[in-house]
Design goal:
This protein is mainly α. It has helices at about 5-35, 40-45, 55-70, 75-80, 80-90, 95-105. This is (rape) hypothetical protein.
Length: about 110
């Protein structure tokens, strides 16, 4: 079990990781606002059973990759927003415009 400086360093890293995760959540909310959609609806709406998660898989893969690269999200946390990214793609969006919006929302 770490003590002294090692314990302080471990706790400091945990605080930094938590702040980073909160920043990602804030970035996603900004991103959702940029598409003029109610954030809660975008983040929580789901499709009915039997429907695919997303209609445009190229759009979805592009937005997930952009989110991961721009926001620095650990995939297990970033995937919390996979449904929101799928919903964005299902709205028939301009992918380049939304990649740009992700870059803006996640700019540090």
């Amino acid at each position: 079990m770490p003590t002294g400086e090692a314990l302080y360093a471990e706790d400091f890293i945990k605080v930094l990781e938590r702040r980073h995760l909160l920043k990602i959540q804030e970035d996603v909310q900004k991103r959702a606002a940029l598409v003029s959609t109610v954030v809660i609806d975008l983040l929580t709406s789901t499709r009915t059973t039997g429907q695919p998660l997303v209609d445009d898989w190229d759009c979805f893969k592009t937005l997930v990759k952009s989110f991961k690269n721009q926001c620095g999200a650990k995939m297990e946390y970033g995937m919390k927003y996979a449904g929101a990214l799928a919903n964005i793609c299902n709205m028939g969006v301009d992918v380049k415009q939304h990649v740009s919006a992700i870059e803006q929302a996640c700019a540090h």
